Amino acid sequence: MKISDKPLLSYASHDLPAGLVVFLVAIPLCLGIALASGAPLFSGIITGVIGGVIVGAISNSHTSVSGPAAGLTVIVLTAINELGSFELFLSAVVLAGIFQLVLGIVKAGIIGAFFPNSVIRGMLAAIGLTLILKQIPHFFGIDADWFGDLNFIEPDGKNTLTRLGTIWDNMHLGAWIVGALSLGILILWEQPFIRNRKRLKMIPGALLAVVVSVVVNLIFFQHNEVLRIGDSHLVALPDLTEPGVLQQSFRFPDFSAINTPLLWKTAFVIALIASLETLLSVEAVDKLDPHKRTTSKNRELIAQGTGNILAGFIGGIPMTAVIVRSSANLEAGNKTKMSAIYHGIFLVIAAFFIPQLLNYIPLASLASILLLVGYKLSKPVLYAKMWKDGWTVFVPFIATVIVVLFTDLLTGIMVGLGIGIFILLRENYRYPYHIEKEGDTSSGEERYIIHLSEHVSFINKPSLQKALQDIPDNSTLVIDGSKTKALSHDVSVALSEFVVVARERNIHLTFLAIDIPH
User: Fold this and answer.
1) How many C-alpha atoms does 227 have within 13 Å on its Cβ side?
2) Core vs surface per residue 252-266: b (16+ CB within 10 A) or e
3) Is pLDDT above 70 for 517?
């Protein structure tokens, strides 16, 4: 029986643990992205809740999880400063959501299908490598860079690689012990003798790792000051139970600048980049889905638009579908979109009822979860497979990996796509037809047949013209378009012009299944 044939709630035994794991990963990501965006910390939690509950309910993706996006941090930070207030920025978020709704309604989601598989695979592999490199410092208790940052250049001027060089001088021994212990538990939980035991399998390895890390740090706190992990290396969820904090946490949009071009420009940029990142993320995560389900891209845009409108109205930063959360979701064994909804519910419970408890979680433990997710996204076997598929696949793949690693997600995707298009055009330029020589005719003339391919565009015109020029004088030529579905006007005109040339060169020319203007 297919998953879609059963009620969503029937998979709670899979989706609840997966939602819990995603929730644990999402907390520091929501807070870190809000901090890097220059927005109130709680705005990241608001977006995480809406991305999980609302977007998860509307979307038909069973794998993706939405929330604050690291790729939008620079845009958000710049927009808040340019507009002059967070409330004005919120009005741009609302407008961006409306733009996304329109994109979904006019079925612009088809854009996501035009990105080559090699580029999507490259994006996933690059994110995996970036996660590994970015989480290693957190694993050792070095939290100078905000948790969840994926950019090569960091806010303090260092970069992903130079940050690694500071580990041995700045590592925190207690954080390293907790990180290593957590990673060991996660690896142990991957082994067959654990997976094959029903009772042990029911306990998420990530949850066990986090619980153990909290217990170990509490022991450090009581008995060893050197190993004790300080507040700067722990989750820092705002405590809404303190007087006045809840009222200050919800902010509302200011539409007083609705006639300002800058506001509309900001909204358009957010909508465009958020939509593109969402489409790419959904396309990528669909490929990871073991059940190979396909997400409706237009419905996803409508879901994201709805989510951003709501987020803007109550003080949240923009959201997208996010590969890191989605990959963690799949890795935790989710079955349906209820895991995304559960993760949003867990965020609500955590923010309102147990913030103090969650603030005992070491970031090193959460880093170990993302290290394992990163490895599974960028396994060595993937690179070997892409290499075996040939250079036309491997070159855009590895280019995407390298550029994403050293710049950012969208830049890498655009470079990979550009290289993919260049290779496609090159191949089309080289193989728009096939020439066959049948030997001499009864009159002693050489006979040639040019079989045109299915699609012959204006790009193919120069190579086709050269092929026609190389046909010997006093020969017979048949141009066969019986398999051609699309012949560009430029090529059609070029063939028409060759009719005159053929007469002058005494070439007996025949067209099959082609209407040539005279």
Assistant:
1) 15
2) ebbeebeeeeebbeb
3) no
Local confidence band at 458 (pLDDT 50, 70, 90 cut-offs): confident
Sequence-separated (6 or more) residues with CB below 8 Å from residue 363: 28, 138, 143, 147, 175, 233, 234, 235
C-alpha closest to that of 277 among 151, 409, 373: 409
Q: How many CB atoms lie within 10 A of CB 178?
A: 32
- Could you state, in order of their start, the residue ranges of all structural domains in the chain? 12-400, 432-512
Q: What is the pTM of this model?
A: 0.83
* 432-512 CATH choice from 3.20.20.190, 3.40.50.720, 3.30.750.24, 1.20.120.140: 3.30.750.24
Q: How do residues 104-114 score in pLDDT, each as one tens digit?
A: 999 999 888 78
Nearest to 350 by CA among 63, 49, 55, 148: 49
CA distance 4 to 205: 27
Terminal-to-terminal C-alpha distance of the chain: 61
**How much is the CA Rg of the chain, to the nearest whole Å?**
28
